[in-house]
């Protein structure tokens, strides 16, 4: 589905790497580049699903992966935010 390419890079549905990992990598690169600033929200699961052409569950798993990496925190009822001192940011 090359029509879902973005400036950050396309998701490859034929890759051995799961889509949620690919999506988490794209978001982590945006965090590292400063495109997604510390203490600011990342796009919602619905927005990510729509923007990248994936299922909402895939976007949810990508967000979970980012939480496990320590890049985002999720506040129930508010969304997910880039951690103030995300790993790799100085």
What does this structure look like?
With 90 residues, this protein is mainly alpha-helical. 40% of the residues lie in helices and 9% in strands. The chain is built from 3 helices and 2 strands. It has a two-stranded antiparallel sheet with strand order 1-2. Strand 1 (72-75) and strand 2 form a beta hairpin. Helix 1 (19-33) packs across helix 3. The longest helix is centred in the first third of the chain and has 15 residues, at 19-33. It is globular and about 35 Å long. Residues 1-8 have low confidence and may be disordered.
Strand order of the largest sheet: 1-2
Helix count equals: 3
Which spans have pLDDT < 50 for at least 5 consecutive residues? 1-8
Helix-and-strand structural type: mainly alpha
Distance between the termini: 36 Å
Mind describing the biggest β-sheet? Answer: 2 strands, antiparallel
Structural Rg: 12 Å
Percent of residues in β-strands: 5-15%
Q: Whole-number average pLDDT?
A: 88
Helix content: 40-55%
The number of distinct β-strands equals 2
The sequence of SSEs as H and E is: HHHEE
Net shape: globular
Name a few traits of the molecule.
disordered N terminus, 90 residues, 40% helix, mainly alpha
Short note summarizing the structure:
With about 90 residues, the protein is mainly alpha-helical. The protein is about 40% helix and about 10% strand. It has 3 helices and 2 strands.
């Amino acid at each position: 589905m090359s029509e879902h390419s973005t400036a950050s890079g396309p998701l490859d549905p034929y890759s051995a790497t799961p889509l949620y990992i690919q999506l988490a990598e794209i978001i982590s690169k945006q965090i590292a580049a400063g495109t997604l600033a510390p203490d600011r929200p990342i796009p919602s699961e619905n927005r990510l699903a729509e923007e990248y052409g994936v299922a909402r569950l895939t976007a949810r798993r990508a967000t979970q992966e980012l939480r496990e990496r320590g890049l985002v925190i999720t506040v129930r009822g508010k969304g997910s935010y880039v951690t103030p001192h995300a790993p790799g940011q100085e």
